Each structure stands twice: as C-alpha cells, then as structure tokens.
Amino acid sequence: MRNNPANIASAVLTYGFVGLMAFLSIFPFIWMAFGATNSSIDIIKGRLLPGEALATNIANFFTLVNVPLVFWNSAKVTIFATVLTLAVSSLAGYGFEIFRSRHRERLYRAMLLTLMIPFAALMIPLFIMMGKMDLINTHIAVVLPTIGSAFIVFYFRQCTKAFPSELRDAAKVDGLKEWQIFLYIYVPVMRSTYAAAFIIVFMTAWNNYLWPLIVLQSNETKTITLVISSLASAYYPDYGVVMVGTILATLPTLTVFFFMQRQFVQGMLGSVK
Amino acid sequence: MALARRGGIGRYYDVNGWLFVAPALGLIALFMVYPIVWSLWMSFQSGRGMMMKFAGFSNIVRLWNDPVFIKALTNTMTYFVVQVPIMILLALILASLLNNPRLVGRAFFRTAIFLPCVTSLVAYSVLFKGMFAFGGIVNSTLQAIGIIASPIPWQTHPFWAKALVIIAITWRWTGYNMIFYLAALQNIDRSIYEVARIDGVPAWARFTHITIPLLKPVILFTTVISTIGTLQLFDEVYNLTEGKGGPSNATLTLSLYIYNLTFRFMPNFGYAATVSYVIVVLVALLAFLQFFLARERDR
Fold it and tell me: Which Pfam families match (chain B) (predicted)?
C-alpha cells in the first residue's frame, strides 16, 4: 500500500521541495567560501570552483583593513553589551516575577509596549543625546542604549516562572540576603536561560549596524559590520576581499550556532512557550 | 497581616522589588521612552540642524506633498504586503513537511534551512548583491537551465530591484519563522494527523484544516514580529544599493529615508522625526489590526 504511485509521487515532491529549499539556504555560504579563493572578476562571473586567489585576497584584506583593531572594536562592543544586558535584564526579570506588586505590574506592561517602538523613531534623539554627552564616536555610545532591553527582561521573567520557590525559601532559612540568593542560587540554576539569552544579545550586538553606522564615524572605532559594508559599497568593490571579510564576520556567530545549537534555537524561540 | 502591610513584609517586598527592576526600567526610560516622546515633540518643529522652532503641523503637510516620502511609504508597504505572506506560507509548509518523523534527514534539512539566521543583515546583503550582479551566478544559472533568455537587471530595474530585496529578506527569515512553527507543531498530538489521513483527508486539507488553525497564535505572533521588522527595513536596502535606495528610489524604505534626511542631506531633524512617526503609527495600527482580526476569527 505504501508503494503506490501516489505515495511515491508525494515523496518525490516532498524531498524535492525540501531539498531545493535546503540547497538554496546553504548556497550563499558555499558561494562565499568559493568566492574567498577567487579573484573579484571570477566571483562576479559566478565561478563555482576553488581558485588560487585566497592568499592574495587575505593579504589584500589585511592591507585594506586594520583587522586586529576592527575585531577588537567588535569584540569590545559585543562583550560589554552582552554582559551588561544579561546582568540588568536578569535582575529585572527576577525582580518582576518574584516581588510582585500592582505598580510594578503596570510598569511591566508599559515596558512591553516599548517593544513596538521602531528604532528609526529613536535614532535622531539618541544621536543628539550622545552628542550632548560628548560620546559620538565612542563605543560607550554604541552600547549604552542597547542595555535596557524589554525583550530580554520579558524572556527572563518568563523563564523565572520555572524557578522553584523552595530554593528561595531554603536560602532564606539559611539567612542569605536577597542579592546573595540571586547571585549564588538563581544565576547558577538558570544557566540555560542565560545561555539562550546570551545568544540573542550576542547576535544582535555583533551584527548591529544602523546605530553604529550613525555613531561611529572614524576608522579607528568602526566595527566589522561597518567595514564590510563600506568595502562592498566601494565604486569597484574587490569581491575577493569582501568575501574574506564576510567569512571572518560570520565565523563567530556560526561557531556559537554550531556549538550551542539547542540554546540557539531556544533563544530564537524566546518566550513563546 | 496588618503589621505585614504597614511595615514588615510588604515594605520589604517593595524595596527589594524596586531595587531589582530599577536599572532596567531606568535605562529603558532614558533610552526608549524619553527619545520617543522627544521625537514626537520634534516632529512639530522645523529648521536646519539644532536651530529648530515650532512649526505646528507644517511637517505633516510637507509629508503629503513629498513625492520621495510617498515613494518610500509605498515601497515599504509593498515589501510588507508581498513579502510577509510569502515568507509565512513558505515557513508553514516547510515546518509541516519537516514535522513528519518519517522524513529521512529532517535534522539536516532543519539546520540547513535555519542557517541563514546566523548571518548578519549586512553580510548576507553583500553576498546577495554579488550573486545577483548582472553577469553574476544567479543570472548565468537561470540562463543555463533555460528559465530566462537574457539576464535580469536585478539592480537597475525598479521592479527587479524590489524583487531582489524581497527574495533576500525571504532567504534570511523563512527559517527563523519555521523554527517557531516547528516548536508549536511538536505540541500537537500526531494522532490527529493519523486519524485524518486514515479518513482520507488529503495532505493539503490537513494543512489548511488542522495545522493552520492550531498554529494560529504562533502565526499571529510571527506576523506581528515580521510586520515590525519589515516596516523598519534598513540594513538590506542600504547595502544592496550603496545607501541610495535606487534605482531612482525604487527600493527606498522609510527608515532609509529618515537616515538620509538626518545624516546625508542637510539635516532636518523635525521633518525626519515626522517621517519616523509614520512608522510608529503604522506599527501600532498594523499590530492592533492583526490582533483584532485574530480575535474576530475566533468567534
């Protein structure tokens, strides 16, 4: 019964469709990998074979771009954004869930409304604010507005619902102060929540573009996304160099994805439970 | 109890509660709430740079007579109306196909289709710009398999330039949406599908009559997320078109126009803030509409 023509046709269709979609999803990565080994002209012509230009492309990339500095800039922004966002948001998510009060519940709901605010409506005031604080062209200006994240607070609060209250009670009997309970019990117990939230914030910070584009104006402060964008928008972009840059920029997120796939998906799904 | 409320426990709870939430609330107030109120105020002002004076509704009148704004608005709505349904439908179909435990290699397919999500918006836009070059790999492949006779002007023709933006966004976000649907499908009892299959309900009817109704809350959620995202589209268009939104504004989005008004042309913060409030209003309206429609259909 399973091998009748209709079943075979539907299997062929299913595998054909899913296979095609998987191929199309992966293809740009393959193209990028081959691209890094080819000259710019060959890349634009669509050559899909390994070439001999890899060393030249890498060398050109390193002459055009101060690679250690650019990566240091990106790393700095990402590390500060990640650590501070996780700290501030987990404190708030814990606080909203454990210590409930009518006023805070209202503020929490108001906070969730900020999720709908488009960044375009914030960028002009934020830019003027940073100018007044004399922070234009600093990494502080990049990180500062991203730390308070309603979404991550929401995520932590949702996950805190699963935090066993017996642990808190036991800790209180043992005489721990509130900040100690948070630091020594909540944080270790919620490791996987932190891992998932880490991935969301890490991805956003590492890939952030529009705000750094506005705030970082000198070559000394630019992050990797800004550098790739400006390399590719040159009048005659050297695609070999661009490919090398794109690979290097994607490598950190790709690594995190492959080593923490489960938490990655968890993080993406956020709090839709 | 009365004692607890006056001093003891109630107060203790309050002080601690506020201490925990204060940093996040303070930052959100300072960098989200204060700026959004400020830009509303700004939208009633006009002038170059920091020299602004009250201008009443003149910015809103100017919107009406600004062909570039109308163009950016139409483009943004076109992306939204065309791209979001295509992507959501594609993600739903993929999720229901990959939800079948008998499908060989589903873990591989799932990972592959999700992979675009790890790229930065800038990186993939740059890749797409190269792949869709006039003599590039996409055109030459399409020509080789005989789908097109002559190369498609992906970056110089208004229609195809928009199509390229839509293709690119769909590539980047379909897997993301699919993951939500797959997670939701895991909570559906598979025996429903088995029973329907044995009763002779065809695959397409199982999809429209079982999968879609059961996934409605998730579909609503992803639609709202995609709406907010599409209305704010910036990185892709900026990097596919060297920041111009070309050819001749055919791909210009509202966010890109605001950026240009503020940082590229003679800065007019007041007018740019007015354009940004168009996005605020659109996001609020569309989110409300989607929730409203979902609730209506529930009855």
Answer: BPD_transp_1
